[in-house]
């Protein structure tokens, strides 16, 4: 891959910085790399949150990507190794950048340049690592969900998670959620193996799940191409915050008059949805930086950090790497179902579409209900 043109100016800064770190401070950098190399498999993953074999693979790819300034092969690999390990240390921990700067005796500006460059590279992997089920994968995903609670044709589970951030300098009220902290939303769809198949990140925390959903590219594409996105009568499931659509099935709303079978359906529905809770817990447990990204006001940088974490999460899932993070005291927050709802859509549009939504809600959910209980 050729070096990205928009990084050429930054190379004039990052290149000399890396050269100085590796050659001018060889002793300190070598010690850092040697210490990491000496860690056991368990210690490596406990501290950096990725298995060693995945890390080595990604370092090699980063070194050949053009995102790290090149001088010679030995320097290029060492630069890539230093950059990627520093990035893993950053995203795996919650310590401030100033602490990280002191720990490695690196200027904060240098660390920031390294983080930005690794993030830019990881974002090039989004379309190959976070993929929508196609072909035979559709059957595999559906069978995986059916094996859990017996609901057929589920292609994914959708939900939102809040990423806590510092108070933004601009439009701060838009990011202040009802849980009384500033955040952005990560909307995600996962399969039965805790793998992300679609992510949409960056909406202000003030918005509800439904409003985030209607802003997403998934909603707009699926609304016009549902037969392509959801072949063979497949659909998503989501909690009661989501609308009922031909390809999205929420549970029955409990107004006190549900039948025993409807109550059981909701139980099966809720049990199947737990896969996305586990995925979010794994994501925040593995990459603890997502508990509170308090280093930058730059929303774009925060969004890129979250998406990069999703990419790395999928690498781990594909490698069958599951780790128990239950002892990490993860401040797990997900869902924004009770947020105040601003009027993002005109009343006329809502009134026009409401009858159709109601009809679809009855037909689709009832169809799935009868498939289970008939």
Automatic annotation (TrEMBL):
Top-rank lineage group of the source organism: Eukaryota
PANTHER family: GH03217P-RELATED, PTHR22930
UniProt-listed InterPro entries: HARBI1-like, HARBI1_dom
Assigned protein family: Belongs to the HARBI1 family.
Record's keyword annotation contains Metal-binding: yes
Native source organism of the sequence: Microctonus aethiopoides
Keywords: Hydrolase, Metal-binding, Nuclease, Nucleus
Domain DDE Tnp4 positions: 158-314
Any GO MF annotation of the entry: hydrolase activity
Lineage: Eukaryota, Metazoa, Ecdysozoa, Arthropoda, Hexapoda
GO cellular component term, pick one: nucleus
Name of protein: DDE Tnp4 domain-containing protein
Intracellular or extracellular location(s): Nucleus
